[in-house]
Write a structure and sequence with these properties.
Elements: E1 6-14, H1 19-33, E2 39-41, E3 45-47, E4 59-68, H2 72-85, E5 101-107, E6 112-114, E7 117-119, H3 128-137, H4 150-155, E8 162-164
Antiparallel strand pairs: 1-4, 1-5, 2-4, 3-4, 3-8, 6-7
């Protein structure tokens, strides 16, 4: 039986030191679960916190795209299990500090409005820390329900809180 593969977009973020190590380990994890050879990853950006408590540390953010044959629910469970294995509590306050955050942005052309999983991610097209990195690896992608490609959406977003990260 032949497997059916589709592209999955994953937003990665960390704001607990060592942030760059958490991001590298998450990229290695995603590379390891990639099927059928498609693996792309953006550069890493330092980002001002969005909708977080005052005094929250800045984030490192990137976006990866991999191929997978898993269902959205299976893939989400794999991402969440990895987060927990890296010290993120299974139950956590919204926008709380995190060692690693892996958000499923899209899975092929699948659309879901389940309580635990909305695809495409409801804020993917409004966040510079998602759009700018995603435009590096999939500029021509048009998410389900959108009329503009990622490059066009990225060119219209406010990227003032986003800086290319260069380790010291």
């Amino acid at each position: 039986m032949n497997k059916s593969f589709c592209r999955a977009g994953i937003a990665m973020g960390s704001n607990i030191e060592p942030r760059s190590l958490h991001m590298k380990q998450a990229a290695d994890f995603l590379h390891g679960v990639c099927e059928d050879g498609v693996f792309r990853i953006s550069r890493c950006y330092e980002t001002d916190p969005v909708d977080c408590a005052p005094g929250t540390s800045s984030f490192l953010n990137a976006v990866a795209e991999i191929s997978t044959s898993l269902s959205p629910e299976e893939f989400l469970a794999k991402l969440q299990a990895y987060e927990i294995s890296q010290g993120r509590p299974a139950r956590h306050d919204k926008n709380s500090p995190r060692t690693i955050d892996l958000d499923l942005l899209y899975l092929g052309d699948r659309v879901s409005e389940a309580e635990h999983l909305t695809l495409p991610h409801p804020r993917a097209t409004s966040r510079a820390f998602v759009l700018i990195p995603l435009s590096e690896i999939s500029p021509d992608l048009v998410l389900p329900g959108q009329h503009q490609n990622i490059a066009s959406l990225a060119s219209q977003c406010d990227d003032s809180g986003l800086r290319l990260f260069s380790p010291k």
